């Protein structure tokens, strides 16, 4: 899963491509479905980009190579290592004919972080990173649709940050969990706006309640399953 552009998983018609990018080795994803094109013969299937780290050229190259059409950049949260490539991605995939920018979606609790280097933690590294958007505010509880496959549920999973979200597809049995839960670990809770108790509660009540076979794709490190983490994660047991 650390190889840029490796095929992280295929469930039903959903394809998850992982790109591990930047100095923090952040996992960013391109999500497509077999029916995201909206019909047979469509030459530019729709896709989502999930998170945008530093140096996103591999994502741009992959999307161009496969003639995909990004319809949204969805942020699992707005820390610098998940937004640093947003400006480049929006510039690459905005529709210059209709003057429609690639929309950036983020939870309401971190909407202002996109343009605040202190809140998004880039100032800690001596740089000032900002991101376009937000173009759509997520609250948690929404259902999102990509193509005609099973809808995605937006789960609000705060703790690592106040606006952390998980994208869960029950039909395919997979979840993109951001920095909430890792294989054998959990997200940091020592940042401004983080809270360990809230993080553990999110894991126990939002993630560990998913079916054990659910495959999780985190913001760092390898994929895992809910069942494996419930049994073996040393920080939060199910």
Describe the structure.
By secondary structure, this protein is an alpha/beta fold. It has one domain (6-232): Ribonuclease Z/Hydroxyacylglutathione hydrolase-like (Metallo-beta-lactamase, Chain A). It has 5 helices and 15 strands. The chain has helices spanning 57-65, 80-83, 86-93, 196-207, 226-232; strands spanning 6-11, 14-21, 26-33, 46-50, 69-74, 104-107, 136-138, 143-144, 152-156, 165-169, 174-178, 181-182, 185-186, 215-218, 224-225. The strands form 3 sheets. The chain has a 7-stranded mixed beta sheet, with helices on one face. Strands 8-9-10-11-14-15 form a 6-stranded mixed beta sheet. The longest helix has 12 residues, at 196-207. The chain is globular and about 50 Å long. The relative contact order is 0.14.
The CATH superfamily turns out to be Ribonuclease Z/Hydroxyacylglutathione hydrolase-like
Mean pLDDT figure: 91
Approximately how much helix is present in the residues? 10-25%
Oligomer: single chain
Largest sheet: 7 strands, mixed
Give the CA-CA distance, first to last residue.
25 Å
Beta-strand percentage range: 25-35%
SSE-based structural type: alpha/beta
CATH class: Alpha Beta
Strand order of the largest sheet: 1-2-3-4-5-6-7
CATH architecture: 4-Layer Sandwich
Number of strand elements: 15
C-alpha Rg, in Å? 17 Å
For the record, the count of structural domains works out to: 1
Number of helices: 5
Q: What distinguishing features does this structure have?
A:
disordered N terminus; 5 helices; globular; 238 residues; Metallo-beta-lactamase, Chain A; alpha/beta
């Amino acid at each position: 899963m650390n190889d840029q552009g490796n095929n992280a998983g295929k469930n039903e018609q959903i394809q998850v491509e992982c790109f591990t990018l930047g100095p923090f080795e952040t996992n960013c994803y391109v999500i497509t479905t077999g029916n995201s094109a909206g019909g047979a013969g469509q030459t530019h299937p729709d896709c989502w980009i999930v998170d945008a780290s530093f140096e996103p050229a591999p994502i741009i190259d992959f999307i161009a190579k496969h003639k995909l059409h990004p319809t949204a950049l969805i942020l699992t949260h707005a820390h610098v290592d998940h937004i640093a490539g947003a400006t480049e991605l929006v510039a690459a995939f905005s529709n210059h004919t209709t003057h429609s920018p690639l929309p950036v979606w983020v939870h309401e609790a971190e909407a202002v972080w996109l343009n605040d280097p202190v809140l998004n933690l880039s100032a800690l590294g001596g740089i000032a990173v900002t991101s376009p958007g937000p173009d759509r505010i997520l609250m948690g509880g929404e259902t999102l649709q990509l193509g005609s496959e099973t809808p995605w549920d937006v789960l609000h999973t705060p703790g690592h940050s106040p606006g952390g979200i998980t994208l869960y597809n029950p039909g395919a049995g997979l979840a993109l969990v951001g920095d909430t839960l890792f294989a054998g670990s959990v997200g940091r809770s020592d940042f401004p706006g983080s809270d360990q108790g809230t993080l553990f509660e999110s894991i126990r009540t939002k993630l560990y309640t998913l079916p054990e076979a659910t495959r999780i794709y985190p913001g760092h490190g390898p994929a895992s399953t809910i069942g494996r983490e419930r049994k073996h994660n040393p920080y939060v047991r199910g």
